[in-house]
Design goal:
Number of strands: 6
CATH topology: Alpha-Beta Plaits
Distance between the termini: 8 Å
Protein name: EthD domain-containing protein
Helix content: 25-40%
Organism: Thermopolyspora flexuosa
Structural class: alpha+beta
Order of helices and strands: EHEEHHEEE
Largest sheet: 4 strands, antiparallel
Radius of gyration: 15 Å
Strand order of the largest sheet: 2-3-1-6
């Protein structure tokens, strides 16, 4: 059966210690997303090196979900799950913006169907 992928692309705040962010991902981010039964699989990646070409983002998350409409939750995203939504707001505050400089990362979200066969 073809899987349904939600791809999130983004950057983290400039100057953040990557080891600190990776520890946060392992100990906080993974458990929060993985507790939702509609998420089949969740993984977080960091681009280490561009081999050919360059993307605007250095970080991306892969979420395999049961259903796009349920994930979309009438625009609230993340299945409308209050645990994930609270976590996402804290993530944006801590990693996704810099009040001193006004920097904010865009977070792009794409839905993709696997070509299965």
């Amino acid at each position: 059966m073809a899987r349904k992928l939600v791809l999130l692309t983004y950057n983290i705040k400039p100057g953040v210690d990557l080891k600190e962010y990776e520890e946060f991902t392992r100990t906080v981010d993974y458990p929060v997303f993985r507790q939702n039964p509609g998420i089949q699989s969740y993984a977080n990646f960091v681009v280490r090196r561009n081999v050919r070409g360059e993307e605007w983002f250095k970080h991306f998350d892969l979420l395999f979900v049961d259903d796009f409409e349920a994930f979309h939750a009438d625009g609230r995203l993340h299945f409308g799950d209050p645990v994930i939504l609270e976590h996402a707001a804290e993530w944006r505050r801590r990693w996704g913006r810099d009040e001193a400089t006004g920097w904010r990362t865009p977070v792009n979200i794409l839905y993709a169907d696997e070509i299965w066969g």
